[in-house]
């Protein structure tokens, strides 16, 4: 596993993009609407570092709970894996709880992603791919 990106929950996509640009980040592609998860996604790079800005699309968005509780904040680390099913099973055996089973992520070339939670680590995301965003 290697780090793919850091997920950052944001209330306003446009305002957050502006602020990260001020810090030297560059947009990677266009903002993507992930209807299945009810979020807007924008990847941003600073050198070799990649962040994923995640903003709610509506009141039912999966990210609203985090933003309501914590405000704008980093909330997950995504790791790239070669085989997502094997990685999920290994982590479940290590005490992680599967939050979202592997499914396609429109913002990452429709590669499979899965979200898991561990009380000592918080939320992690796995993405099955061999190329970096």
TrEMBL record:
Which terms under GO biological process does the entry name? L-methylmalonyl-CoA metabolic process
Which Pfam families does the annotation name?
Glyoxalase_4
Tell me the ranges covered by the VOC domain, including all copies.
2-129
- Record's signal peptide: none
Spell out the SUPFAM superfamilies in the cross-references. Glyoxalase/Bleomycin resistance protein/Dihydroxybiphenyl dioxygenase
Q: What is the lineage of its organism?
A: Bacteria, Bacillati, Bacillota, Clostridia, Eubacteriales
- Name this protein carries in UniProt: Lactoylglutathione lyase
GO MF terms on file? lyase activity; metal ion binding; methylmalonyl-CoA epimerase activity
Q: Which UniProt keywords apply?
A: Lyase, Metal-binding
Q: Does the keyword Transmembrane apply?
A: no
């Amino acid at each position: 596993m290697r780090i793919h990106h850091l997920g950052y929950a944001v209330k306003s996509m446009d305002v957050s993009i502006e602020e990260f640009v001020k810090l030297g980040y560059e947009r990677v592609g266009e903002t993507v609407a992930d209807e299945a998860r009810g979020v807007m996604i924008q990847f941003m790079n600073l050198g070799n570092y990649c962040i994923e800005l995640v903003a709610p699309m509506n009141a039912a968005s999966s990210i609203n709970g985090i933003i309501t509780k914590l405000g704008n904040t980093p909330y997950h680390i995504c790791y790239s894996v070669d085989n997502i099913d094997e990685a999920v099973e290994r982590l479940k055996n290590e005490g992680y709880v599967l939050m979202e089973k592997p499914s396609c992520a429109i913002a990452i070339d429709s590669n499979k992603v899965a979200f898991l939670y561990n009380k000592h680590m918080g939320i992690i995301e796995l993405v099955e791919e061999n190329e970096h965003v």
